[in-house]
């Protein structure tokens, strides 16, 4: 069964699964004493992370991100709309996070997950305040037309660290996003121009272009339990040890968000500094993984 | 480096605080909390029998309902409900009344900045008024970081919108103890330095955040004193009436 400190008597070996269900906290604490977790990860290591760009062919930009078993699918569709009066030369991004019943046994059609609107709002705040996308880039004709980007993130498998995976999927989808070519037709409306030479007037933007990303935010969720800090928790760990801290740093090491919603364990300055240091390391790992995924796409 | 605040306050000055409890007669506990123009009403009903389906029946459960001043309930209200629920769950002693639900209803009367901290303070006072057993109180404060790097406390709505970033911080209340000073500290820091909840908005540097924490802790001591005086006065008032 892989228990590092198997006490030797057969009775505990046979009932490990039962022990895990009946006394989950003691099961985890036995592992923490040896500085390891039931899935054999050391306390400070995150699960294997992969990103696949272009998962949804019909969307303008999409990505599938997996952190361990947690799977998020992000897709961006672009639509032209009239910009608001207060910001005539800025586009708009609408972010929504869905947890369909496929992701977890506690979500049923009549019983939506409590976490869904909270993660949606957190994502929205993080992406918009981090300055990753300059909304002025999404403008077409000042005061008349601008791009509206609808970012939808679907959770396909909820196994802890939902916000981390969702943010990673959103960032990857934006890095894959290609703004389609449009031109003005006779009525003065913007239409998608499918082929070259068909439109009567000059295209508003010459070729499909990528969005310039500013400083990209990356996040890491840690669980505090007594004196231990566990990074990247699974759903089981999150349900047993409830105090979590999510730190979002951008590529220039600025703090975009430090989110600790209550929890029985108080966070002292040393714990916060450790969480921030762990997040810095994770930012470097994630930057590498994202760059490899992007360069993999470009080779094709 | 001075910052000119519209209402003439200094950087660390809080707005005038006002708190009254036992204002709603049907509720088991109630409180109204105002910081300047921000006013929040909190009501507590409980403990009631039974817990909701997904909750652990071996512990008491806390349910929070957030009612905005205008408009429909959206994601912002759901987020505030979740943050408030988890904050209150960490300060209440949940094992005293297992398999019960305590409902906390927050009604926003006016929002002029620092809404979530006011709601947390109001909810704590209402829980005390209802007699729900708690480990300690939660004292909550809002700190803003200006573009110049200066940290100002308890912003108004206009200040919140114009600043680079702000943080809502919740600390346990300050401890007056007969035990010697060193015995209550954890990892070399006194208990009231621990953060119960932290929600930040906007981009700030890591040093700015730690500076906010320092200022927040100093302000939470003042708030704790205000709460202590208020509660002591109420207990002497009620004993005179009885």
Strand-helix topology:
The complex is a heterodimer of chains A (300) and B (242).
Chain A: H1 10-14, H2 16-22, H3 24-33, E1 49-53, E2 61-67, E3 70-81, E4 92-98, H4 115-130, E5 139-141, E6 145-157, H5 162-176, E7 178-179, E8 182-184, E9 190-192, E10 209-210, E11 217-225, E12 228-231, H6 235-240, E13 244-250, E14 255-259, H7 269-299
Chain B: E1 17-21, E2 29-35, E3 38-49, E4 61-67, H1 75-91, E5 100-110, H2 115-130, E6 138-145, E7 151-153, H3 157-162, E8 165-172, E9 185-186, E10 189-190, E11 197-201, H4 206-241
Parallel strand pairs in B: 4-5
Antiparallel strand pairs in B: 1-2, 2-3, 3-5, 6-7, 6-8, 8-11, 9-10
Report on the structure:
With 300 residues, chain A is an alpha+beta fold. Chain A is built from 7 helices and 14 strands. In chain A, a hairpin with a 7-residue loop joins strand 1 (49-53) and strand 2. Chain B has 242 residues and is α+β, with helices and mostly antiparallel strands. Chain B is globular and about 50 Å long. In chain B, the strands form 3 sheets. A 5-stranded mixed sheet of chain B has the order 1-2-3-5-4. Chain B has a 4-stranded antiparallel sheet with strand order 7-6-8-11, sandwiched between helices. The N and C termini of chain B lie far apart (53 Å). Chain B is built from 4 helices and 11 strands. Chain B has helices at residues 75-91, 115-130, 157-162, 206-241; strands spanning 17-21, 29-35, 38-49, 61-67, 100-110, 138-145, 151-153, 165-172, 185-186, 189-190, 197-201. The interface between A and B is large, with 37 and 41 residues. Chain B: This is Exoribonuclease phosphorolytic domain-containing protein. Chain B: Residues 13-133 form the Exoribonuclease phosphorolytic domain. Chain B: Belongs to the RNase PH family.
